[in-house]
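User: Can you write out an input/output pair for a complex, sequences first and structure second?

Assistant: Here is one pair. Inputs:
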Amino acid sequence: MTDAIRAEGLVKRFRDTTALDGINLRARTGAVLGVLGPNGSGKTTTVRILSTLLQPDQGHATVAGFDVVRQAHEVRRRIGLTGQYAAVDEELTGNQNLALIARLLDFSRPAARARAAELLDRFALTDAADRPAKTYSGGMRRRLDLAASLVGQPSLLFLDEPTTGLDPHSRNELWDVVRGLVDDGVTVLLTTQYLEEADQLADDIIVFDHGTVIAEGTPEQLKARAGDQVLQLETVHPEHLGRATAIVEAVTERGVRHSGTEVSAAVTDPAMLPAVVRQLDDAQIPVAELALRKPSLDEVFLALTGHTAQAPDTDSIIPEEAHP
Amino acid sequence: MTVTTTPSVEAGSTATPMRPTGPARLTPAALVRHGLLLTWRSLLKIKRNPEEILGLTFMPIMFVALFVFVFGQAMMGDWQVYRDFLMPGIIAQSVIFTTIGTGITLNTDIQKGIFDRFRSLPVTRSSPLVGAVLGDLVRYFLTVVVILAVGMAIGFRPGNGLVGVLASTAVIMVFAFALCWISAWIGLVMRTQMAVQNFGMIWMFPLSFGSSAFVDPNDMPGWMAAFAEINPVTHVVDTMRGLLVGGDAPVTEPLLWTLGWTVVITAVFFPLAARAYRNRS
């Protein structure tokens, strides 16, 4: 299988900050590559370089086999870009926005009209087709934005934080659209700060922090790196939490995560669970829940970077069943 | 890994069932086509934006009426005489102030990511800039038409007829084309729309008022008159006055000065704007 995207040693500096410090990445053709990282980790800069909006200071990248700097035009003929930084024109109607892009892509006038109508229908925007985009709701605007990036039937789609700021319903709708595109054979590069999103959509995940790649692999592989399992403990009495934390910390020798009355930590050795149980018993701490489970991506991030992703919903726990 | 020097078309086409879109090569014809499409986009906004219609019609009407009827009598003892003196000046001033819109629209389009959308498409690099500027030239032209219509409604009659009207319109359009690169440059380097508004406006006041547009420089104190004499706006207005109003006002000399200034301004600010456009990310 060929790689749809290949980047080697990408470096980008803005004045005195280094946004990218030697990024390598590969996206398999027909797969979804999830680029995961907190704000300012270099996700958007990478997307802007790969979509030819920005030139790297060092390193090089190919998209669909074409160099993003020297063969930018050929790259542009094959990609679609949606996200924080590629917008629709608010003053124009949904219809005009799509028709304009189709015309820029050399569609004839009737073909442009037909393509716009087709996309508006597909994204459930037909009723709003002749209203200016500024009257659209957040979810509708994202759909129009996505439709705009699909006018030319790109074989490769960049989605830069496509669901940031969307309500759960709109977010699920957008996820379904992305899955549909992947079924059609489109390669997707998706950036997100939402761990759940990467886990839901991505075949491969690459984790960014401070302009470098700190981990990559399938969601399962990444979870494995944070320890095979996570020990989760809840005390009956909240006042015991401190002592319980100390015990878990001492046994696992790992960073411990709190949320509410829960403590969790990565477990690398199966013998750790009985050790924790013995010590809790010695300390006479009653336990409400004690379990081993697969780690969430947030815990992966904690294990990899020593800090949690600074996304608003870092507490969201990914259901294990999401990945067979 | 070495980068393939020849485009690996096979990799691009066998990897996916989709075919590339857009023109295979960007010819000058493509630039014209893309530029005109984006001009159409720029013009669609006039219709949709009430503020724009207000700015393009109501403001000029108000300015003409206020200047003629408030200052006219006091300036020249007869508002009708002042009206005829004022017309070329107020056309020039209004068009000059309209150029600020070029910077503001460019800045807004970049802030909102609309240019990124266009730049990620296989279209000519400069077509968004071309579209914005051509669309604004239409706005300048509308400004001229509105003011002339108001002037004629209150009795102004161009002394050199239609030829004079067309010639003086051409002069201000050419000059505005040069000025819009100053505005474009400001719009492309400033971070916020507010900054564009402020910086774009600041230099316009001394240039348009410190000229022969509203008052004869002979009636100004020496230093101000000296400034007015070298001010390009004075040359533009003097040329237009000669063409539009007629009489014995010389045209050739101010016209040459105007063209000279146009070349100089364009030569300085077009490259600056073009570079800012390329660098803006």
